[in-house]
Amino acid sequence: MISRIFTSNIPCRLGSGVVFERAIRNTASGVVHRRHMSYERNIVQSPFGNVDIPVKNVTEYIFEGYENYADKPAVTCGATKRSYTYGMTYEMTNRMARGLLSQKGCAMRKNDVLGLLLPNIPEFVPALHGGLLAGLSVTFANPLYTAEEVCRQFENAGVSAIVTLPMLLPVAEMFKSKIKHYKGTICIGGKHDLEKNIYGFEQFLKENHRSELPEIDCHKTAILPYSSGTTGLPKGVELSHYNLVANLAQGSHPTISKYYQPEYIDKKETILTIPPYFHIYGLNAILHSVLKSKNHIVSIP
């Protein structure tokens, strides 16, 4: 005979927190077993004290004070040595944002979703932050994914425009065929092909599009990184501008990062990165942290 077991959580107070006891009753014997499950309150205080978190969009926060480093290198490709200064990077970001919103460009609207299908290259920065400065949400996929995996993620995220490379254009074309109201593919290293709704990145920025940049709500979704799919298919994680800024503000504490100690204020280093920017660690903990501290980042595509 199989005994049925019923479980229920019974709250009981212990000190300043609440412990949940699990009551397990075996219907065959009538015996009730109890065991503690977890605390409701479990707050860990940092030994470094509180951190002030600015209410700013993440692009504004990262590039704050860039004018003082306008002629210093910001991002460099470790394979081709292609490099942009902080001044060039911010200008490209601004032009990208205006082109995405322009009626002569992609004609995107605030809250649309931009998809990046890129390896670690310097243009990842203006592609991402141009989207954020335009008030869009941005998602990014592993460029080694199959076309079907990319399409599934971009459909799930609601992408309506893609930034990619010439070798990955077929994937963007496949995605375009699956959705309505596609607004364009921006191809880094490619040329304009307006019949196919493709814009060459360099020409796109040179066209000097005119559009008004929107006011950005710091609590709206900025990026949509996708999980690795440990418990099934990958799932989008909504991170706001405020989330990203809070994480960077915590990492900027002088006890954690030497770059915010007085003796390092005027010392700038060249930092090699290997983790991919389409992963949140590679993006916020490395790329954004280096740009925020105005160091020089070198990436390997």
TrEMBL record:
Family annotation (PROSITE patterns): AMP_BINDING
Subcellular location per the Swiss-Prot or TrEMBL entry: Peroxisome
GO BP field: fatty-acyl-CoA biosynthetic process
UniProt source species: Anopheles minimus
Protein name per Swiss-Prot or TrEMBL: AMP-dependent synthetase/ligase domain-containing protein
GO function term, MF aspect, one: long-chain fatty acid-CoA ligase activity
Keyword NAD among record annotations: no
Keywords: Peroxisome
A Gene Ontology term for the protein's cellular component: peroxisome
All residue ranges annotated as the AMP-dependent synthetase/ligase domain in the record: 67-291
Domain of life: Eukaryota
